[in-house]
Design goal:
Blueprint lengths: L5 H35 L1 H40 L1 H36 L8 E10 L7 E4 L12 E3 L4 E8 L4 E5 L6 E6 L5 E5 L7 E3 L12 E4 L11 E8 L4 E5 L8 E6 L8 H8 L41
Antiparallel strand pairs: 1-2, 1-12, 2-5, 3-4, 3-12, 4-5, 6-7, 6-9, 7-8, 9-10, 10-11
Helix pairs in contact: 1-2
C-alpha cells in the first residue's frame, strides 16, 4: 500500500520529533533571553508590553462584557430579594444624613470665612478619567489589572487610580488605548501613608497578599486594629488624605492593613490626575538617568545664571619694573 506524502513525511518527521523533544529547553532559553533583554533595555520592554496591551485590549473588552452582564443580573436579583431590608436601612440613613447636612452647611460657611482670612489658595482642579477593568493580569506573583483607558484619554504613568472606596493603585504602564494598573497589594508597590488617629507616618508595602504591610513605623508608634490608613502626600506621588484601608492586625513582627477594595470585584476605576510631578514623573526619571556633565564651565539649564556661582576674577598684571640706564644708580 502506497504511503501518501512520502517525501514530505521523511523531511518533516525528524523536524517534528526534534521540536517536541527540545521544545521545553527552547522555551527556557527564550524566557532567559527575554529576561536579559528586559534588564538591558527596560524602555524597549515597557513599550512592547504597552503595545501588546493595546493589541489585546479590544479582545479583552469583548470577552469581559458577558461576565459583567451576568454579574449585573445577579446583583439585580439579589437587590429584589432584599428590597424591604434595603428600604428600611435607607430610611435610617436618610434621617442621619439630614442631621449631617445641617452640620456640614455650618462647617462649610465657617470654612469659607477662615479661608478668606488666611488667604488660602485652592489646589488645582482634579481631572478624572473613568475606565472599566477589562482583564486581571495578575496572579500569584503579581497583582495588576488592565483598564480600558490610555494616553488618548489623558492617562499617564504614575497617576493615582481610585475606586468608590479609596486608593487602588497607580498607573504602571500607559498605552494608547489601555493601561496597566499596579495594585497596592503588589510586591513592587510602596505608598507613603499616615495613621489617621495617631498621625504616625509609614510606608504601605505590598507583598502579593490581600493584607499589605505597614513598614518603617517608629518604635513608639501607636497603631491599633481598626485605625484608618490614609495617603500622607510625601514624595509627590499621591495627594494627602486618600483613604487606603483599615489596620486588620497588629503583632510584634508585622502590622497588616485590609484594603478598602476587593481585587476580584473591581469593575470600574477612576484615574485621578492631581497635577503632581512626584517621584514617578517621567521627566524626573529621565533627569536622574542623564549623564553628569563634567565640564565645569557649562552651567545646568535648570540653574539660573549667577545663582550659587562665583565668577572668576581676572588676575591683575604685575607692575612692570624699568631698569635704569647703564652707569646710573637708581
Amino acid at each position: 500500500m502506497a504511503q501518501h506524502g512520502g517525501p514530505q513525511q521523511r523531511i518533516f518527521s525528524p523536524l517534528r520529533t526534534a521540536l517536541h523533544r527540545f521544545a521545553f529547553i527552547l522555551l527556557i532559553f527564550t524566557a532567559f533571553g527575554l529576561m536579559l533583554l528586559g534588564k538591558a533595555d527596560t524602555v524597549l520592554i515597557e513599550r512592547i508590553r504597552a503595545a501588546s496591551a493595546d493589541l489585546v485590549s479590544p479582545v479583552m473588552n469583548v470577552v469581559s462584557r458577558p461576565a459583567a452582564s451576568i454579574n449585573e443580573l445577579t446583583d439585580k436579583i439579589y437587590n429584589l430579594a432584599h428590597l424591604y431590608e434595603e428600604n428600611e436601612r435607607l430610611r435610617r440613613e436618610n434621617q442621619q444624613l439630614l442631621a449631617w447636612q445641617q452640620a456640614a452647611r455650618n462647617l462649610s460657611h465657617e470654612n469659607v470665612r477662615l479661608r478668606e482670612l488666611a488667604h488660602y489658595t485652592n489646589p488645582p482642579a482634579l481631572h478624572l478619567v473613568t475606565a472599566r477593568v477589562i482583564a486581571d493580569m495578575g496572579g500569584a506573583y503579581a497583582h495588576s489589572v488592565m483598564i480600558s483607558a490610555g494616553s488618548r484619554d489623558g492617562v499617564a504613568k504614575g497617576q493615582a487610580v481610585i475606586s468608590d472606596e479609596g486608593l487602588v493603585g497607580r498607573v504602571a504602564e500607559a498605552g494608547y488605548q489601555a493601561s496597566r494598573v499596579l495594585l497596592i497589594t503588589d510586591i513592587n508597590s510602596r505608598v507613603p501613608v499616615i495613621v489617621e488617629n495617631s498621625r504616625d507616618r509609614a510606608f504601605l508595602s505590598g507583598d502579593n497578599t490581600n493584607r499589605p504591610l505597614l513598614t518603617f513605623l517608629t518604635a513608639d508608634a501607636a497603631v491599633a486594629p481598626g485605625d484608618r490608613i490614609l495617603t500622607s502626600g510625601h514624595g509627590g506621588a499621591f495627594p494627602p488624605g486618600i483613604p487606603i484601608g483599615v489596620v486588620s492586625s497588629v503583632s510584634e513582627n508585622a502590622v497588616r492593613v485590609a484594603p478598602l477594595f476587593r481585587r476580584h470585584q473591581l469593575e470600574y476605576l477612576r484615574v485621578a490626575d492631581y497635577g503632581l510631578q512626584g517621584i514617578l514623573s517621567e521627566k524626573r526619571i529621565r533627569d536622574s538617568q542623564a549623564p553628569v556633565n563634567t565640564n565645569a564651565t557649562q552651567l545646568s539649564p535648570e540653574i539660573p545664571a549667577g545663582v550659587g556661582v562665583v565668577p572668576a576674577v581676572p588676575a591683575e598684571p604685575a607692575p612692570s619694573v624699568q631698569k635704569p640706564p647703564a652707569g646710573e644708580l637708581p
